[in-house]
Amino acid sequence: MATKLPPVDVVIVGSGWTGGIVAKELAPTGLKVVMFERGRPQDTTPDFSGPQAHDSLKYSRRLHMVQDLSQETITFRNSMDQVALPIRQHGFYWPGTNVGGSGAHWSGLTWRWLEWEHKMLSGTVAKYGKGIIPEDMNLQDWPLSYAELEPYYDKFEKVCGISGKAGNIKGKNVPGGNPFEAPRQNEYPTPPMTASHTMMLFEKATQNLGYHPFPVPTANCSEDYTNPDGITLGQCHYCGHCTAFGCEANAKASPHFLMLPLARKNPNFQLRTNSTVVKVNLSSDGKRATGVTYVDARGRELEQPADLVVLGAFVTGNVHLMLHSGIGKPYDPKTNTGVIGRNYAFQGGGGAFLLLDKNTFTNPFMGSGALGTWIDDFNGDNYDFAKAGYIGGGGISIGSNSGDPLTYHPTLPGAPRWGKGWKQAMVDAYHHVAGIGHQGAVMSYRQNYFDLDPTYRDAFGRPLLRLTFDWQPNETKIMTAHSAVCQEIAGEIMGRKPGGPGGPRAIGHFNSAPYQTTHNTGGVVFGDDPNTSALNKYCQSWDVPNVFVLGSCVFPQNAGRNPTGPVGALAYWTAEAITKKYLKRPGALV
Amino acid sequence: MTDEATTDRRTLLKLAGLGLGVAAVPTAAAVAAQGEPAAAPPAAGGHDMAGMNHAAPVAGGEPRPGYVFLNPDEAAFVEAFVDTLIPEDELTAKGTDLGVAIFVDRQLYGGWGNGDRMYLQGPFLEGTPEQGYQLRLTPNQLVTAGIADVNDHVSATYAGNSFDTLEEADRIKVVTALESASIDLPTVPTRYFFNTLFQLVMDGFFADPIYGGNKGKASWKMLGYPGVGEMYADKIAEWRNRPYRVDEPLSIQDLM
């Protein structure tokens, strides 16, 4: 039996962006708040300081900041008629662990999603009619509009010191920014980062082709910046050790230094590391959470009673806790009913190889996780779905991210990958090649979902979360079309006809083994209808109103852009609903 | 410890801009991997370190480090494998002289080699290729079992020899056959064995020298990589389209 601890007011599961934002916003209330982190303590100093912070074997290959699969993993299958098997080694996504979560090892691309991306169903039907939506596609709207969320996007950008160039301020087009972006109230808090040579080649080529390039908005700060909370971010070093690493300069906005110091101003805030929450406990009628059960560093099972439970784990962690705790009706793909596990989506990708001449020098080691130039001409609903034959697009970009030879040692086409001639082929390629990539939206489908695995268990004895996912024709079409655009741009840069190596990622079935992206969405989606959503517009459980769930698990489908912008904005939105509404009158807010 | 796709994708991810959340782009490297194997270098003499349970001498006259995990037969195999992948040429010394075999030994002996962060609970079913690695073997079990398998194959095919005693041209033939999985190993799937050991050797060649490989930062100097200590905020614009080089790249050890 678990030892029962004295009760607290609020339990927060996870120390990443969402939990950090809620803890920080709750600090002025002085409530007793306990935050649980399954991983180790870590901070900029001492963990990310010194030359060891750039140890690419430790971080990029051994994935020191990514979850320990011996403790928790998921099982995977492409379709319902298969037996799902566990992801035994790090595969298609890298969920963070340790203090700061994925927010400590992320790259830093920080988008506002387009207006359409907040209303994919109604926006699509209004333009094209219902007939364009495939029967198995669970297209759903967000329960709040871009306009409602705009002030929270603004807040998150200011706290993180996002570097970028606005394209649309209060409906007015601003040169140099993204002409497709939704109206913003303000310019970005810091100017865009310095472009690399390859980014400038991409910019010129895409302009020649009639597209609209702009600098990616980054959480790698372009200059020293003090945010509205009084916390200073340093200027990015462009050191090329960003994705999968912690940042020694505090240039990469991360919750461990932007949120937790402020959460700690509350004397009643406590962070318990090496502590895994295994279950949300419910009252006997199942209508109220009574707290959580967790396993501490010594392996003891402890019960932490609380009045309010906020789930801020990674997508898979939140969905797992909801299913294992019995909060909300599990999704049934056969009848398309139930809500927990519904509408899982991933992202597509692909691209083109850019072979530059010997007199062109890329200096690939000068860069950062988010440094890049992007076009949105084929993203969101910025083109004609009826003409294209698919719904939802993607971003196309070039990045200057890392030239660390451990993970970046390309060769010229046709070269051997070992032995005689291999080293020379690398030398010839290292300073003279680049890649153009695309990141594609993935819609949600009846057959792509989470549930609990019938066979495999985690280190705590719980059934593993089971994922069933495969590419669908809509997404394969996006990836094929966008790979062709990447080839077109590569051809324009190289001054020759498009063609050569490169292509869509999705050839055949979705493969869970190679890393692709960490941008998972869905499973505990929010909405206006309790029959198709687990949460209301304040990310509050319809079934157990003292449980709030945050992160990209609430998105009803995925977009062709990175999720952290709306994840942060929604955490502020929900934190405000908790402090201004829920705490005054605990209960269902809708 | 990855399937073939992973190895190629990882390289590619950085190329395409992993940071951009942009995904894998099939590169020339990936395309090349499917193409013709490397031409055989001129045959060299037999492997003189065979059967000796210490590593080849490293550059700089340091004492020979001994192996902590590999037994003498396995060590001889790994040394021969390393030097087949990374032969001496005008660009670098051969892999064993760069500490790559020692790197492989230490990695296999450590937490990763013992599968410390893998999910290793059964049941163990074969699964589909899309379900990834499903063996109950840890990386060091996989590699040692594969070495024994390959040596059995070599012994049967080359009149009682082990892999490390083969002429260079024959070693290249065997490695090429392993890479294309045209040899079917009895204990471990050929692709998993080859890709795991291949990746380890690559990591030993490119990783920071603090792990025992990449002696003298040989691969970094070869590529013109300035090392881990540089900051480019005030250089990225100035050096656009001009080759930025340093005389001596800096490693973690250099900066401590």
UniProtKB/TrEMBL annotation, chain A:
Domain of life: Bacteria
Residues of the signal peptide: none
Keywords: FAD, Flavoprotein, Oxidoreductase
Keyword Oxidoreductase appears in the UniProt entry: yes
FAD dependent oxidoreductase domain residues: 9-98
Glucose-methanol-choline oxidoreductase N-terminal domain residues: 234-344
GO molecular function annotation: flavin adenine dinucleotide binding; oxidoreductase activity, acting on CH-OH group of donors
Residue span, Glucose-methanol-choline oxidoreductase C-terminal domain: 447-571
InterPro entries xref list: FAD-dep_OxRdtase, FAD/NAD-bd_sf, GMC_OxRdtase_N, GMC_OxRtase_C
Tagged with keyword Oxidoreductase: yes
Homology family: Belongs to the GMC oxidoreductase family.
Protein name (Swiss-Prot/TrEMBL): GMC family oxidoreductase
TrEMBL record, chain B:
UniProt-listed Pfam families: Gluconate_2-dh3
Taxonomy, superkingdom: Bacteria
Protein name listed in UniProt: Gluconate 2-dehydrogenase
Organism: Sphingobium ummariense RL-3
Lineage: Bacteria, Pseudomonadati, Pseudomonadota, Alphaproteobacteria, Sphingomonadales
